[in-house]
């Protein structure tokens, strides 16, 4: 099922929704807390963690509506994972929260390496950070589901990140083809119904029946993250020039996911206003 009953694990997740807490993983980890302004004007705290041993970076923050967003970049496997823990609408029959996971390939120069992230410090922790570059919105059609029990081949982070999402774990067709070419077992993936196969599918925001299948959309934005390293030039006493790392460039980037759901009840945020 897309939404599971409340369990001990669920209680832990609910606690995180109420108070943003990021536990430092075992390994060579480093944590940085940064205050950023969201697109709605609210200020939130991002928690960025680098784990040099696992060669990964995580970023986590809470949106103004209480949704907890977590992003993980797995450099060992070139995989990125987005997770959204969305507070449910109890008066409309939903559980206390709904979890979504979106998985895709991690491209070069999307974010700085984990060893560089681990060395980052800030002089003024109370400052509200604004990204130097606002990158364009990326549209992603998530046409396949990922089997959680077999996802270890893609990334060791998926199980911990997406356990609460269960069947709501999505990826793109292009990424599936890439991973299959690399030898990943095809049984990990399940192709979802496509609009070309079922022309009657509507966008969830225009579907009136809560129990009808439809195409859901979900958007999120990483408001501040270190996307590139900056290099400066210097000269020694002989006049010989050299370059050295002298800072980072910060970016903001939005993501818009489209995916199939078997009932609109699982996509209540995507409604006409």
SSE blueprint:
Elements: H1 8-18, E1 29-37, E2 43-51, E3 56-62, E4 68-74, E5 79-87, E6 97-105, H2 114-117, E7 128-129, E8 133-134, E9 138-142, E10 144-146, H3 157-162, E11 169-171, H4 173-181, E12 189-191, E13 214-235, E14 241-261
Parallel strand pairs: 1-7, 6-11, 8-14, 9-14
Antiparallel strand pairs: 1-2, 2-3, 3-4, 4-5, 5-6, 10-11, 10-12, 13-14
Family: Belongs to the OAF family.
Organism: Lates japonicus
Pfam families: OAF_C, OAF_N
Describe this structure in words.
There is one protein chain. The chain has 273 residues and is mainly β. 11% of the residues lie in helices and 41% in strands. It has four helices and 14 strands. It has helices spanning 8-18, 114-117, 157-162, 173-181; strands spanning 29-37, 43-51, 56-62, 68-74, 79-87, 97-105, 128-129, 133-134, 138-142, 144-146, 169-171, 189-191, 214-235, 241-261. The strands form two sheets. A ten-stranded mixed β-sheet has the order 7-1-2-3-4-5-6-11-10-12. Strands 8, 9, 13 and 14 form a four-stranded mixed β-sheet that branches. The protein starts with 7 loop residues before the first helix and ends in a 12-residue tail after the last strand. It comes from Lates japonicus (Japanese lates). Residues 30-179 form the Out at first protein BRICHOS-like domain. Belongs to the OAF family.
């Amino acid at each position: 099922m897309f939404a599971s009953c409340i369990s001990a694990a669920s209680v832990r997740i609910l606690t995180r929704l109420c108070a943003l807490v990021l536990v430092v993983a075992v390994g060579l980890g480093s944590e940085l807390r940064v205050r950023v302004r969201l697109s709605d004007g609210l200020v939130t705290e991002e928690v960025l963690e680098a784990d040099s041993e696992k060669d990964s970076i995580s970023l986590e923050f809470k949106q103004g509506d209480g949704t907890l967003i977590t992003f993980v970049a797995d450099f060992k496997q070139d995989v990125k994972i987005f997770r959204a823990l969305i507070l449910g609408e109890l008066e409309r029959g939903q559980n206390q929260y709904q979890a979504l996971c979106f998985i895709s390939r991690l491209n070069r120069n999307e974010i700085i390496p984990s060893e560089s992230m681990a060395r980052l410090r800030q002089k003024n922790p109370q400052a509200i950070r604004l990204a130097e570059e606002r990158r364009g919105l990326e549209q992603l059609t998530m046409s396949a589901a990922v089997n959680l029990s077999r996802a270890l081949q893609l990334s060791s982070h998926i199980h911990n990140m997406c356990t609460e999402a269960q069947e709501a774990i999505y990826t793109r067709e292009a990424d599936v083809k890439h991973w299959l070419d690399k030898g990943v077992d095809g049984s990990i993936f399940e192709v979802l119904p496509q609009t070309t196969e079922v022309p009657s599918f509507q966008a969830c925001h225009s579907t009136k029946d809560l129990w009808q299948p439809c195409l859901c959309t979900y958007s999120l934005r990483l408001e501040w993250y270190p996307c590139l390293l900056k290099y400066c030039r210097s000269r020694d006493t002989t006049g010989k020039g050299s370059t050295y790392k002298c800072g980072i460039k910060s970016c903001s980037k939005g993501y818009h996911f489209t995916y199939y759901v078997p009932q609109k009840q699982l996509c209540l945020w995507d409604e006409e206003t």
